[in-house]
Amino acid sequence: MTRKAGFVLDLGRCVGCAACVLACRLEHGWPGSAPFRRVLPLNEVRHPAGPTYFLSLACHHCERPACAAACPTGAYERRADGIVRHREDLCVGCRYCEMACPFGAPRFDGARGVVAKCDFCEARFERGDVPACVAACPTEALRVAPDSGSAAEAIPGFRDAAGCRPSIRFTLPGGIRGARLTGLLRQMAERR
Amino acid sequence: MTNTARDQAMHEWPLAVFTALAIPAAGVCAARPIVYSLGVTAPRPVMTAAAGALVAGLAVSLWHLGRPARAPLAVRRAGRNALSSEVFLAAVVLALSALESAAHPAPPVRLALVSATGLAALLLLAVVGLVYFLPARRPWRSALVASPLALGLAAGVVALASAGVRAPLLVDLALALLAADAIVAAFGWTSQPARASGFDPVHPAVFERRRTLIALRFVTVDVVPAVLLLAGHAAAAGIVLGAGVFVDRLTFYGTVCARTTEAEIATIERVIAGSAPR
Amino acid sequence: MAARTIRTVCPRNCYCTCGMLVTVDEGRIVRIEGDPKNPATSGHLCLKGLAYARRATSEDRILTPLVRRRKGGPLEPTSWKNALADIAERLDRIRRQSGPDAVLFYEGSGSHGALGQLAFAFWHQFGGCTLPFGDLCWPAGLEATRLTYGANLHNHPRLTRHSRFVILWGHNPAETNVHQMRLLLEARERGATLALIDPRETDTSDLVDVHLKPKPGTDAALALGIGAVIVEEGLHDRAFLEAHAAGVDEYLRRIEEYPLQRVEQVTGVPGESIRALARAYGGTRPALLIAGFGLQRHRHAGQTVRAVALLPALTGNVGTPGGGWQYANLASHCLQPVPLPARPTAVRERFAVARLGDALASLAQPPLRAAWIEKANPASQNPNTAAVRDGLSRLDLVVVVEQFQTDTTQAADYVLPAKNLFEQEDLVTAYWHPYLQRRAKVFEPPGQVKPESEIWRLLCERFGFDASWFPTDTQPLLRGLLPPGAGDAFDRLAEEPLDLSNTGDVAFARYRFPTPSGKVEFASDEAARLWRVDRVPDYAGVDGSEADARRFPLRLLSCKTRDRIHSQFGNLDWIRDVERPHRLEMHPDDALARGLADGQHVIAWNERGGIAVALRVSHGLRPGVVHLLEGRSREEDPQVNLLTGEGVTDMGHGATFYECAVEVRGA
User: Which of A21, C126, C460, C553 is in the most buried spot, having the most CB atoms within 10 Å?
Assistant: First the structure.
């Protein structure tokens, strides 16, 4: 049975340490190129009305990828295992996918004239390993998503507003972070 | 806390130039069969200029590509993908125009060619609009989808008028098309709030001047050319509109907002800090 | 040549001391991963460990000796021959004129490895030198733990998962010991409750269940207050205290002076929260108390740590898996000393390292005339930067051994290019897990770079000293450092980290405490005798006059970030792309009172100096507390140590970085 590509981020474990970002950098042809993964903090000023957490995000290998729909040459394909793969040999560097993706995954590499993005460490995944970012996470917050599970599809700071069906899920935190998240969700529900 | 700056320089400027040249050029080709029914023949210099503008525009758009030598790959998904169709249709318009000018066909064939070119150009204008109808971009996903069509046709007819073509109703047609363009642009630029939650300006410095640029766009594309046309100064109207098309494209690319996770986060942070959510 | 994977270890001043696997192909690093065979670091690294790939190939690496031919002039490349000849001549002249102890040998914690001791093979033959005593970081807590339990040992980190209740006190493992964080989260998943005591919210506080925010420096009162509640509610372990503790009666009398009302007033923590925490900690077994070094960066550090360290003993959480007191674990420090020539009397330990600036200015008989600085960056990292820089500038000779340009190389007459972790084999101990690890030689040093041991050997030759103390092949020397009975451990270290301590996973499992009484000392004669502090821990208040408190009402904390080890790594673009920016963090109430807004450029200042920095309004602080990250790697980083003072801790000769009063105004 093919393993499915997708990420699950445990918000109760991620400490925003950015080891995942550097592991990606190390894996994909440094020096020079920008990493495919980034860590975005939410509420870093620690306002108590909401949680403070970190979103470690790369490409979400969407079920309906905006990049693939946008590409004029057909340089994107979605594999059976869910990996949305960019074919560099078909890329003309028009950057249309960059405009279309609501998550900022494709990045234009000026030096090489083509776009590049996270490929879920295709080669590693094919031999049964996990992506470099997942392997590197010191708190095991970032994982390959299991086939089933009850993790959240959307959390404050991340949702699928454009209908792309990203393959990323979030495990909700406990502790103080969890309590503040619950408070925020209640506040947001009341506002509607 | 990823500090790598997003690409803030306007990398889309070749696209702005390309569309500023291609939209009026396609507009002239699309307008040609229409004004033909008014008894107007497009003068050769105008057609040559239009073809030249389209070629120049395509050349500039090649500049935007990371791998220009691979440009022919871009037609691979014509019919299924807006951008691919745009490239394909631009090639068709150029090919048909070249054919017409090289072959010097007899009138019935010429009419067929002109109509075919006009249809291709019309489709091209429609598709250019569709290319930018992206869920992740504002205000592109709005009535502005019809803007290349409206602007192109208006520019095409005004170009003919400004080239000295005299025909009854030509100026009226130009004014009507300018009015249509103004209505489309008005809906497009105002139907969505400028700063929407979950969206961030891609070029903040240009976005700050949004209101000025939009006002300038209306003035240079619709208001001044219309006034000049009414006053009988068609040539001047053409020149102003020519400049106006560039302002329109600069505004279009320069003030765009993209849906990003960063913007989504900023929205939530505003909620947390107590400001009203949108 | 095929790619090869080599086992090594990160030698930085860091709890984790991660095992590393480095894959090299055609002379360059293609992969860096954690060593899965280190049971504490479990195959993971932090972003800094991964950044070694960049650090090792940085264009900013110093590859040749540099000389500054005139004061205020630039550093220029020179040869080893010329550099060492000139340095030797000048050191010799200073020695003849003023004595060998006119030369300061200043070694920091920038790189760990047993071979570092070889420096003294030179200095002993030189006739001596001046050394600081104490340490900038952890000595108060080390001494406090030693006085209380007899030794700095704690449970193996993997036992954390057995804890049912954990208190982190003055500790931010999410940033400073990320593997500990994973272990805590595992404990939490198994049902443990996590509590944090820290004046500010951090990446750790997000993930705990309970967070108390006392005023900085009041932890002794809080600890004694918690002790009082524990005893009041009968949660102390009478059987344990009866059998294994000494001086309990004096302690019980002391805690009577700390009723909740007083503790609340002193610490700013609501009494009910203190009671709840005390009940939970006292009523849950096994419970673990992990103290960080931040707890002890103020004058009354030792008494504070003693007060906190007694709580596990009070509740009988000693010698059990899942329980214990955790501060530092020196189990891996089992190596023999490096063979050295006899130590002459003129090795003069004359000043606490926290007072470097003062020592440079005022040491006499003889005054300091030269400094040799390696593995350190005192011009930015020591307190009272102005005094340190001024002092260095007045020396006749400053030699700095460094990989990159730093504030300290700015003061140097000579900069000698230092090796990095991949360029010399060594043995590395740790202070959290019990593993000894072997640092492998992966590359030849590039350019003109030489390992420090080689620099010392060449300098010895210049002086005509016996250079045989510095073998060209260091492996036999390293083998000889292993404890007796270690057998073929040196070879096995190539395959895995080794625990050679024979101390077992559970510290004090047999309740044998190497203290004078053989028991846990709630009251300590030794403390009173050695350090002239109270036999029983007490809270001594915050130093400083009322007037000073009015002029400088804000307390500045300068804490650590995951992005750097002090001033290391911050110069790399890989780190700059993800780092937390340097911002002065201030509570909204304090910002409002001063008319300051988020993002505004401000000046933070006190009697020692002022620094310009951008403000960040942060709700995570207590009012009255401001925070700015330490660790200055680049010219544009704020110089927080311009503001910190040269106070010394009540025991251990440590530094008082967090006892820094400032005011802040708009720039």
Answer: A21
Specify the residue for token string 């960066």.
Answer: C297
CATH superfamily, domain at C4-55: ADC-like domains (2.20.25.90)
Concatenating the DSSP letter of every residue in chain B gives ---PPP--S-TTHHHHHHHHHHHHHHHHHHHHHHHHTTT----HHHHHHHHHHHHHHHHHHHHH-SSGGGGGGGGTTTTT-HHHHHHHHHHHHHHHHHHHHHH---HHHHHHHHHHHHHHHHHHHHHHHHHT--TTEETTSSGGGGHHHHHHHHHHHHHHHHTT---TTHHHHHHHHHHHHHHHHHHHHHSS-SS-TTEEESSHHHHTTHHHHHHHHHIIIIIHHHHHHHTT-HHHHHHHHHHHHHHHHHHHHHT-EEE-HHHHHHHHHHHHHTPPP-
Q: How far is CA C605 from the centre of its chain?
A: 26
C579 to B1: CB separation less than 8 angstroms, yes or no: yes
Q: Nearest chain A residue to B68 by CA: give it.
A: A92
Instruction: Name the strand (E) or helix (H) holding C33.
Output: strand C28-34
Confidence (pLDDT) at B276: 42
Where are chain A's structural domains? 7-191
Nearest-by-CA chain B residue for A88:
B67
pLDDT exceeds 70 at position C15 = yes
CATH of domain C68-136+348-492: 3.40.50.740
With tokens 């059976």, the residue in question is A80
Contact residues on chain B for A57, CB-CB shorter than 8 A: 261
Q: Rounded to a whole number, what is the distance in Å from the CA of A99 to chain B's nearest CA?
A: 7
Chain C: residues touching A (Cβ < 8 Å): 31-34, 44-47, 50-51, 53-54, 57, 174-175, 178-179, 181-182, 185, 188, 194, 201, 203-209, 211, 562-563, 574, 577-578, 598, 616-620
- List the one residue out of A170, A140, A133, A52 whose CA is nearest residue C183: A140
Contact check, Cβ <8 Å, A93/B258: no
Q: Residue B6's closest chain C neighbor by CA? A: C577
- Give this prediction's pTM: 0.94
Contacts by residues C247-252 (CB-CB < 8 Å, ≥ 24 positions apart): C247/C517, C247/C521, C247/C522, C247/C523, C247/C524, C247/C535, C247/C536, C248/C522, C250/C522, C250/C523, C250/C535, C250/C536, C251/C227, C251/C310, C251/C522, C251/C523, C251/C536
% of chain C at pLDDT higher than 90: 97
DSSP state, residue C168: E
- Residue C246, pLDDT > 60, answer yes
Query: Among positive and negative, which fits the CA dihedral C432, C438, C442, C445?
Result: positive
CATH topology of domain C546-666: Barwin-like endoglucanases (2.40.40)
Selecting from 3.40.228.10, 3.40.309.10, 3.30.70.1230, 3.40.50.720, what CATH number does the domain C155-327+506-531 have?
3.40.228.10
Residues of B with CB under 8 A from a CB of C: 1-4
Give the tens place of pLDDT for each residue, B150-209: 999 999 999 999 988 888 789 999 999 999 999 999 999 999 888 888 999 999 999 999
CATH 3.90.180.10 fits B13-273, yes or no: no
B115-157: per-residue pLDDT in tens? Answer: 999 999 999 999 999 999 999 999 999 999 999 999 999 999 9
Quickly name the fold that domain A7-191 has. Alpha-Beta Plaits (3.30.70)
Q: How far is CA C589 from CA B117, C496, C586, C596, in A?
A: 69, 53, 8, 10
Task: Name the DSSP class of C209.
Answer: S
- Domain assignments of chain C as residue spans, ordered by start: 4-55, 68-136+348-492, 155-327+506-531, 546-666
For residue A147, count other CB atoms closer than 10 A to its CB: 8
